[in-house]
Amino acid sequence: xxxxxxxxxxxxxxxxxxxxxxxxxxxxxxxxxxxxxxxxxxxxxxxxxxxxxxxxxxxxxxxxxxxxxxxxxxxxxxxxxxxxxxxxxxxxxxxxxxxxxxxxxxxxxxxxxxxxxxxxxxxxxxxxxxxxxxxxxxxxxxxxxxxxxxxxxxxxxxxxxxxxxxxxxxxxxxxxxxxxxxxxxxxxxxxxxxxxxxxxxxxxxxxxxxxxxxxxxxxxxxxxxxxxxxxxxxxxxxxxxxxxxxxxxxxxxxxxxxxxxxxxxxxxxxxxxxxxxxxxxxxxxxxxxxxxxxxxxxxxxxxxxxxxxxxxxxxxxxxxxxxxxxxxxxxxxxxxxxxxxxxxxxxxxxxxxxxxxxxxxxxxxxxxxxxxxxxxxxxxxxxxxxxxxxxxxxxxxxxxxxxx
Amino acid sequence: xxxxxxxxxxxxxxxxxxxxxxxxxxxxxxxxxxxxxxxxxxxxxxxxxxxxxxxxxxxxxxxxxxxxxxxxxxxxxxxxxxxxxxxxxxxxxxxxxxxxxxxxxxxxxxxxxxxxxxxxxxxxxxxxxxxxxxxxxxxxxxxxxxxxxxxxxxxxxxxxxxxxxxxxxxxxxxxxxxxxxxxxxxxxxxxxxxxxxxxxxxxxxxxxxxxxxxxxxxxxxxxxxxxxxxxxxxxxxxxxxxxxxxxxxxxxxxxxxxxxxxxxxxxxxxxxxxxxxxxxxxxxxxxx
Lengths: 404, 288
Description:
The complex is a heterodimer of chains A (about 400) and B (about 290). Chain A has about 400 residues and is α/β, with parallel strands linked by helices. Helix content of chain A is about 40%, strand content about 25%. Chain A has helices spanning about 10-30, 55-70, 95-105, 120-130, 160-175, 190-205, 220-230, 240-255, 255-260, 275, 295-310, 315-335, 340-350; strands spanning about 1-5, 45-50, 75, 80-90, 110-115, 135, 155, 180-185, 205-215, 235-240, 265, 285-290, 355, 360-365, 370-380, 380-395. With about 290 residues, chain B is an all-alpha fold. In chain B, helix 2 packs parallel to helix 4 (about 95-115), helix 3 runs antiparallel to helix 8 and helix 10 (about 240-260) crosses helix 11. Chain B is globular. The interface between A and B is large, with 39 and 44 residues.
């Protein structure tokens, strides 16, 4: 069974929003009545995800993906029943520490899964380190989480900002792009993505013409788009997400640049935003650890199950939630469901090899996924795989002092 | 920078400035003339964009979308004035700030329930599609030019109504001295209502007209709200002409700031405002 907790501030609004979620999850819980055999108390998994605000849909998909995996295992992983506690982090870094402390302290969860927003995730990493609580990050890409802030009990089932952008450098150079301009929002994620791309691109031998940036989350791109036309680079590498990504791709096409200066980017430029971008996104090439038409058995199973459960098409966020559950399953399997042998469980998770919908998935010493990064191109409203931009890309985990 | 690029950047700046004026003009009316601080102005801008998207998706007509967004928000403005805002006129600013902040939360929540939180785009009407080739790589969307023209026309209409018509005279008189206007038997409360509704409708109209070039997304009104206040304060509170000049100045500052001083572009607008306020504490055309 699961229940929800929420902060006293704006409790009414939140209660309203989470009521529905709690109800559905409650119903899901009843469907699998606790078996009579003694197997100890259920393992308490704390979801700290955005259930409201801009990232609410992402949070919901991660939550759905995780629960779907657990449901398909009959409600338990490694023989241990799973119970959920969820808290809405609202993507607010300022209340992240409080929310995390509430899960760890008052709710006494055995493991925390979260979150989307990198600022919130970094606060969670801090608390997880201080309280020695296992943490699986199912989205945020901040390099630090599996860099200087790494710990044996901290995992990520998503990506690092470095990981999804660095392979693009070589891809673009190999496609004959020698002089490239970059554009992003001036904030942590933006500069990490651009820096990673530049690292790959300059190592391959390319030249960066100019780095363009504007304050987050501003969307008045026109001046910089004109600037790009003046610079006339061979191509542009961009990182934007959400509403900004839609507007940038549309503005870029409206200015006619897509006909003469090809647009490349991190996958977030076109993931989850394609419908609004329409035909303007056609031909945009991006790198990410997932693609819409990835054809492997695990992905087919996942997509079908997700569609059957939620009526929606599974995406990378749902995959990351699903894999977070798969990773936890590895730990529980290794100890026969005994979470008190945690060191054994987490070390089994470190050496896990998961047959993920995204392809083979393993983990490095910092807990960051080692995975394929795909080059995709937008064709008819889908991010279709063109090639594997990087096979088993391993984040360098700079600053991580955990030994393998 | 060659002359042509400079001219294009100038055009970018003017176009952005005109859009800013369109959105800020409603705030000028409500804040400057009624004296009501409306923090929900940006929320109405977003609402206008979402309404336009929903109507355009349903009817397939951009003209209907704009008209619908305008009409719905105008009626909404009248209702809000009747229920809430008329109690706020003449009250201290804290009460108004609290009310309009509450409105932001409610509008955002309602938007989430009715329209969801996805990002959408609105197609411009067919006859405004396409673009004009400026250089061999750069072209300029016709819709952006049309947007400029629409903003200019609206600016003229607002200016004409405020400066030349009897209605405008009443509005200006009410802004000068509310009680005296009432004492003269002018139905000032009724005028208030329409000015408020008009201000809301202008915000929504801005959102609807900008939707094809800006896309429609939650939170799109946040930065617009801040810039609108900057425009109003810079131009001089209550001055429509001041708002127009202020909006153009901000559009140009932002555009050229991004090109020449990319590291400082985010603060240049505020530096401009601080500079102007040091020189003229009541704004460019504000009354002392």
